[in-house]
Amino acid sequence: MTNSASSSGPFLRHLPAQTTARRARSRRDIEDILASGDALAPVFQPIVELATGRIAGYEALSRFRSATSRTVPVWFAQARRFGLGSQLQAKAITAALAVPHRPAGRYLSINASPSALVSTDVLDALPSRLDDLVIEITEQEPVEDGPLQEVLTELRARGARLAVDDTGAGYAGLQRMLAIKPDVIKLDKALVTGLQHDPAKIALAEALVRFARRTGATICAEGIESAEELLTLADLDVLLGQGHLLGMPADGWSDVPDAAAALCRTAMRQALAGTASSLAFRGDDGDQRMERLSQWLTTVSSRDELAQVVHPVAEMLHADQVLLSRLDVLSGRLHTVSGRGWAATGDSYALSDYPLTHWVMERQEIAQVLRDDPDADPFERAVLTRLGYRSMLMLPVSCRDTPLGLLEVYTGSDRAWTRVEIRRARMICNQLGPIIAGLSGPLAGR
What we know:
By secondary structure, the protein is α/β, with parallel strands linked by helices. It is built from 17 helices and 14 strands. The strands form 2 sheets. The chain has an 8-stranded mixed beta barrel with strand order 1-2-3-4-5-6-7-8, surrounded by 4 helices. The protein has a 6-stranded antiparallel beta sheet with strand order 11-10-9-14-13-12, sandwiched between helices. Strand 5, helix 7 and strand 6 form a beta-alpha-beta unit.
């Protein structure tokens, strides 16, 4: 025990001194960079419009000309620990702004942490007008009311746009997004990498795109490294992107690689033409499914073709069964145009036998029936029980205010229909009306 204590004693006594010496050297290294004119060099990475392949702007990044093996994040983290973070960030901003000949119409995106933005070091480094600048709020620091919000308001008044970095990397990023109300939302590389194979990542990216639409923000995806990632993001309506595929950080104002720019343009041409991309769509594809269904409906010219509508409609509405019926006004009966099993094509039934169906057709309103809802129509609840379904949506099909038919959507799930599903079903019925109106001849004909 004595020998062990004796052998460990010198180590314990010298550790604080060694640590202090290392900290002192690290601080001197940062002070040397702050004092040097060329120890820190800016590089610029293109930010690209995914729809056109053109450069929208450049993000300014920093490179350190030092013999040490510290990474860029480590340099900035150590500077912050020594109370020199705002000075180092200000030096990086000054160096980036000093690079001449930035192409006309291209903005510059610079990085600053919330704590540095309220410092005189960073504020003094910024020009009086900021119209061609995007200021990226970096670091997972809390954004609270007070000095920072006042500074952000002032920067916007001077023409700056604000961006939040690392969105999707954690809950703190979402908190910053709500507090800052950014003009640009940058998707973190961790969210972008491999998202074409990850439904959860796609769902989060879609949610952020919807948030951006509602708030007037622009989405920019970071870390794009593959064609599959780029096409998936473009399909999700992500407007801007950057990453190794679109251009590496460089000393000057570099161009987008020809192959990447061509990929962007080709994908847009396919979207304009309504054709599928060379890679299958990887998203939730609600909008794309609706587009494909609408395009297909424009080609329907017979009842046999119309009968095929039930399959894509069921898929879009997350349903187990879809029935489309056509109204014979003279007889007061609905004739099934498409169906299977208990309601085969060509079957018919009288409206007078189904009060809720008659109400839907007469009032031209949508009705929902849940089997376990005690307030629902008891007759329709019994029908659901007999058929083995738990939820039904009935929608009238009309054209120019003339009732023409009925769309019935069934599911075995014990759930109410979502507003999105109801809106999609209504849009489908709006397209089915003119098609049914244009079909002439006997109901059983082709």
